[in-house]
């Protein structure tokens, strides 16, 4: 249980050598200020509006389905991040909290981007929740809020690990990355929706930093607490089936008639590959020192996105 903090005994930034500007989270914060500052309100949707009118009903339905999954996903990560921010703040990890403020701000921009798209391009003001399939509901309606909000009553290292695996590894690392990447490729190949692909590209860069933080956090927890690796492994395995289910359920809704050259194999292959890469990264942390974790934390994820 969290005990309320009644007073500060000291401040990190005014103590001798307390604040670490070389902390990996601070390096991520610098990148967030340079790369995360783009405005969803200023992306030009005029070509997208024309494209939307020319698209077939099937093409519009697939695009609307994808946006509805992205939209609720962005809303849930925005709503559910706060317990983790609070946990990190209460542990006095100021550098990490500072990065998480940028993280949360970026998720809010993603919410804005998708909603702007629904309003201004798709003109979709009706209820879209029928697009949320059973596996999608398992992850976004249940597992994500439950594992994050549990931190309000149980901020233990293993609870943090379960929350971060769910949020950073599965929701961001497998689902968001796969969904954004595949949609980006598909619309680009079809020469459609340039405003949407521009936004997806910017969001992928933000997500890469978020995932880099998740890898850092989980690696730190794995090194600091012996019992964490087992929990990480378990949680990853528990969430693979519903994560792959989200992809499969998108395709099964169209019965082999998927437009834009989207194929289930390409999607699933990409998703599985993301999963394997993250799993191996975390597995490596077991044999690393805390010093190594701090040194390499922000490098590989972002190198792949820039
Ligand atoms: Mn996002
Ligand atoms: Fe994110």
Structure description:
The protein is mostly helical. The chain has a single domain, classed as Ribonucleotide Reductase, subunit A. 73% of the residues lie in helices and 0% in strands. The protein is built from 12 helices and no strands. The longest helix has 33 residues. The chain starts with 23 loop residues before the first helix and ends with a helix. Bound molecules: manganese (II) ion and fe (ii) ion (FE2). Fe (ii) ion binds next to helix 8.
Features:
single chain; 306 residues; mainly alpha; Ribonucleotide Reductase, subunit A; 0% strand; binds manganese (II) ion; binds fe (ii) ion
Walk me through the topology.
Elements: H1 24-35, H2 46-54, H3 57-80, H4 82-90, H5 94-122, H6 134-149, H7 157-189, H8 194-224, H9 228-252, H10 264-285, H11 290-296, H12 299-303
Helix pairs in contact: 1-5, 1-8, 3-5, 3-6, 3-7, 4-5, 5-8, 6-7, 6-9, 7-8, 7-9, 7-10, 8-10, 9-10
The structure holds manganese (II) ion and fe (ii) ion.
Fe (ii) ion is lined by residues 77, 107, 172, 207, 210.
Overview in brief:
The protein has 306 residues and is an all-alpha fold. Helix content is 73%, strand content 0%. The chain has helices spanning 24-35, 46-54, 57-80, 82-90, 94-122, 134-149, 157-189, 194-224, 228-252, 264-285, 290-296, 299-303.
Oligomeric nature of the chains: single chain
Here the CATH topology equals Ribonucleotide Reductase, subunit A
How many DSSP helices? Answer: 12
Q: How many structural domains in the coordinates?
A: 1
Distance, first to last CA: 41 Å
Gross morphology = globular
The CATH architecture is Orthogonal Bundle
Helix content: over 70%
CATH domain class name: Mainly Alpha
Q: SSE order, as H and E?
A: HHHHHHHHHHHH
- Say which CATH homologous superfamily is assigned: Ribonucleotide Reductase, subunit A
Mean pLDDT level: 94
The assigned structural class equals mainly alpha
The major β-sheet equals: none
Beta-strand content estimate: under 5%
- Radius of gyration over all CA atoms, rounded: 20 Å
Unique ligands: manganese (II) ion, fe (ii) ion
Low-confidence stretches: 302-306
Number of strands: 0
């Amino acid at each position: 249980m969290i005990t309320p903090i009644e007073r500060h005994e000291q401040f990190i930034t005014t103590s001798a050598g307390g604040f670490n500007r070389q902390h990996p989270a601070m390096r991520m914060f610098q990148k967030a200020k340079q790369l995360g500052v783009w405005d969803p309100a200023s992306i030009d949707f005029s070509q997208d509006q024309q494209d939307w009118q020319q698209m077939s009903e099937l093409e519009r339905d697939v695009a609307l389905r994808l946006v509805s999954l992205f939209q609720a996903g962005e809303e849930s990560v925005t709503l559910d991040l706060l317990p983790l921010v609070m946990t990190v703040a209460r542990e006095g990890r100021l550098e990490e909290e500072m990065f998480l403020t940028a993280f949360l701000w970026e998720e809010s921009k993603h919410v804005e981007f998708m909603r702007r798209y629904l309003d201004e391009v798709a003109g979709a003001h009706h209820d879209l929740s029928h697009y949320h399939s059973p596996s999608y509901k398992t992850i976004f309606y249940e597992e994500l809020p439950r594992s994050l909000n549990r931190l309000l009553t149980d901020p233990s290292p293993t609870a943090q690990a379960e929350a971060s695996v769910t949020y950073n590894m599965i929701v961001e690392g497998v689902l968001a990355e796969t969904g954004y990447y595949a949609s980006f490729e598909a619309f680009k190949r079809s020469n459609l929706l340039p405003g949407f692909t521009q936004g997806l590209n910017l969001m992928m860069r933000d997500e890469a930093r978020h995932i880099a933080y998740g890898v850092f956090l989980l690696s730190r927890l794995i090194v600091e607490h012996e019992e964490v690796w087992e929990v990480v492994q378990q949680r990853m395995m528990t969430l693979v089936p519903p994560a792959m289910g989200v992809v499969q359920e998108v395709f099964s809704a169209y019965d082999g008639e998927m437009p834009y050259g989207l194929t289930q194999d390409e999607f699933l292959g990409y998703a599985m590959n993301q999963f394997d890469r993250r799993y191996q990264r975390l597995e490596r942390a077991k044999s690393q020192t805390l010093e190594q974790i701090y040194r390499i934390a922000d490098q590989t994820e972002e190198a792949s996105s820039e």
